[in-house]
Description:
Elements: E1 10-14, H1 19-30, E2 34-39, E3 50-53, H2 59-73, E4 78-81, H3 96-106, H4 108-121, E5 127-132, H5 145-164, E6 170-177, E7 180-181, H6 183-191, H7 195-205, E8 212-213, H8 214-225, E9 236-239
Amino acid sequence: MSTPELQGLRALVTGGASGIGAATARLLAARGAQVAVLDLDTTSLPAPLRGVNADLTDDASVRDAVADTAQQLGGLDILVNNAGIGAQGTVEDNDDAEWHRVFDVNVLGLVRASRAALPHLRRSAHAAIVNTCSIAATAGLPQRALYSASKGAVLSLTLAMAADHLREGIRVNCVNPGTADTPWIDRLLNAAEDPAAERAALEARQPTGRLVRADEVAAAIAYLASPAAASVTGASLAVDGGMQGLRPRPEQG
Length: 253
Ligand SMILES: NC(=O)c1ccc[n+]([C@@H]2O[C@H](COP(=O)([O-])OP(=O)(O)OC[C@H]3O[C@@H](n4cnc5c(N)ncnc54)[C@H](O)[C@@H]3O)[C@@H](O)[C@H]2O)c1
């Protein structure tokens, strides 16, 4: 039997209690990595995932969580900065407190986790950071001004971090999911006036005609995190059913 691809590697996935993060944590573990999940509540994680409760808006709690994880796993090779929160509206709709709240999680959360993880990653022979960005960083989506700005920052940070840590052997990449079928989207649909019509509109926006699956994003993250991607750094990998790059003609009747 061949050795699992991520055997011997140790990973920390933020936001790994739900959606894309949960699918990623499970996949990394299935490929042989030891995986810890950092989230607000990790009580119902499936084995063999290890949970560490922390709030990414609290620097001390993130530092403790990363230090505990590295100690328990005997080091850290992979950091997946996946946790994020949404916001709706145009640039007029959210007050300063909401802008600070979303940036505190989506941007500063990534900064805090990366800052705490870097000393451990420097000691790894296969160090990788993968950030969950979004189609919202590269396409103008209506009613997503604040969220898009936060994900634009994630895209730029991915490039800047890839440059800064290149010579240390730490690769930094991101995935850009299109609308993905996760509890996040369930919440969005449940809040809509007509959830079925809203889902149909989101599906129709995808050239593939369906939402992206969490396990499809997880597969892209696992690739970027793996030694198979040793020459890939500063890249953003769209997992969006063609939404960013394609301009298909409507189907002929
Ligand atoms: N679902 C989509 O359509 C979609 C599309 C593009 C990008 N994304 C991005 O994918 C990532 C995951 O989204 P998802 O759809 O799986 O969402 P989700 O809501 O299912 O999961 C997000 C997880 O992040 C955790 N989290 C939130 N704030 C936190 C904090 N302060 N500290 C620690 N953990 C925190 C939540 O508890 C949750 O478990 C996010 O960064 C999101 O922006 C999602």
